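Hi P.,

Sorry for the delay on this. The queue was packed all week, but I finally got your sequence through. Input first:
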Amino acid sequence: NSFTNQVLGQIALWKPAELGFGEDDFPLGVHMLPKKLDEEVA
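Then the structure:
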């Protein structure tokens, strides 16, 4: 679901440590949803 992907992507950007990502994993730019989160949606 694209809405779910969008919400998880926003959470990953704003609370990366809670999802197991480092704060430097998302420098300024366009990024794909991490595979871990994409699989969670599926």
